[in-house]
Amino acid sequence: MNPVCYSFRRCPYAMRARLALLASGQVVELREVVLRDKPASMLAISPKGTVPVLLLPDGRVLEESLDIMHWALGQNDPEHMLAGEDSALIAANDGPFKSHLDRYKYASRHGSDPMEHRDEAMAWLATLEMRLERSVYLTGDRQSLTDIAIFPFVRQFAATEPEWFAAQSLPRVQRWLDGYLGSELFAHAMIRLKPWVEGDEPLLLRGLFPQQEDGVLREEIGIGLGGFPVALQEPLAIDGPATILHQRAEIVDRDMVDVERVIPCVGQQARHRHPSAPEKG
User: Fold this and answer.
1) pLDDT (average), residues 141-149
2) pLDDT for 156-171, tens place per residue?
3) C-alpha distance from residue 104 to each of 31, 53, 109, 215 (Å)
4) Is this model's pTM higher than 0.90 or not?
5) Residue 78 in contact with residue 226, Cβ under 8 Å?
């Protein structure tokens, strides 16, 4: 029996859980949730009704994204991501930065001044810029749990006003963000699925790194942007009842930077572009 992950594609918390599951090589059944119509099976194990939720084969339920990330990387951590965890920086992201992000992006919902909260959020991003002056990633020259825990929230901030964000003096943050937006890790994590309903055939999210005891396989297949294997890896991120050779991950809602990518089969190269995101109501 595989673990079962209830997820919502656009949620940054669910996104970082999927990133860690992929990076750790886990195989989980992925169930896409419609938040306005949450499945009874999810509410039965997690009454609070938020995503992500991971049901483990032994019956344990993980209801927090960071707990899922720690569990996944605790099973298999080929990139040594746990070694670079900065709990204080993640807490600052999940606390003050997320609060300002919500009050900037959803100002009418909160009755807030969006520009005030945009400025506060930018002040925090300036601290990330200073970190990235010293190293390629947020905690050193290797990517870590810290990077993939924070990236989805910076992505959401940048996509709120993409042209404005692109004009800001945050060259290292922008390069770091673009690296993840263009990575195979992100493309696999963002494949669009139909909402799951009871009785559906399982869809398996397969990690980019097969679980292994040493680094031999990684040396053979080669390492792509951000340390993730590209063209020579297994071609499919999602296995379902039908074979999927090419899956477009077109991210066109207002919460996201547009990406068009064909997940490569063996020997093919990924391609992507970044047009302006269309505004939707």
Assistant:
1) 97
2) 999 999 999 999 999 9
3) 30, 27, 10, 44
4) no
5) no
